[in-house]
């Protein structure tokens, strides 16, 4: 593993704890540099025990922080029995994966057994505690942050389970793809790292959904076809009556089923489709605002302005001025 990734190594011959804070001043791999200046372990209680392999960190530009997902640190740990980390208020998100041995995670009033092929994704601002479960625990820690990191984590935690299971080869391939682009300079490096981080997150979502999929989570065929129909016909005067007739179920049943699988009512979903089209036309054409409302399926101009402002905090004209292509 990590044959193409230049990793530095440090071995703790005896366990090190926060009492030895000065020993950690040069080891920023343990603490993401932008995690509220946590390099002195002021937000952590921990004991390092075993061997750590880590990447040399690159500076993170303000532009990258604002526009991309970005890697804060990576470490591959061959931990012995004394290893643990307990912390909170740590502005970072953590993907951890177990290769050998076992560990324990305590998070959000739940306890997780971490065994080979399993991992977790957590928000490190929340209190958490993980440690070696027996005599050894080999695992990797990926600390990341960025524009959509909080959204991904909230979505991940929505069902109350932050764990995942994935074959080592699949996880390792995605991980090393991130690290390869991070450790090899190119003009597109920040974009590539962000893209690969997002790919890893989507892979974890897919694997978890694949393993937990049950009949009540499979979108019924009539709802799937209805969504396609709405995406193609949003500019038409669609009503709940016409949508329920298309789906072949009652209005009440449609509203309940639609929200169950999409998180929105049919009307909310339809409004989002119409506003998305309006935003595109405002940015890409010189058509009058009232005409754009009509072409997007909202013929009442006052209603169009009201819905648009509720969604963007701007009128259509203000949105065009800020986003129009030159």
What would you note in describing this structure?
Helices cover 41% and strands 26% of the residues. With 326 residues, the chain is of the alpha+beta class. Helix 3 (168-183) packs antiparallel against helix 4 (189-212) and helix 8 crosses helix 11.
Brief overview:
The protein has 326 residues and is of the alpha+beta class.
Taking Cα atoms only, what radius of gyration do you get, to the nearest Å?
Answer: 24 Å
Question: What percentage of residues falls in helices of 4 or more residues?
Answer: 40-55%
Shape: elongated
User: What is the SS-derived class?
Assistant: alpha+beta
Summarize the main sheet: 9 strands, antiparallel
Instruction: Calculate the terminal CA-CA distance, rounded to whole Å.
Output: 48 Å
Mean pLDDT: 88
Helix-strand topology string: EEHEEEEEEHEHHHHHHHHH
DSSP E strands, number: 9
Number of helices: 11
Which regions contain 5 or more consecutive residues with pLDDT less than 50?
A: 21-42
Beta content comes to 25-35%
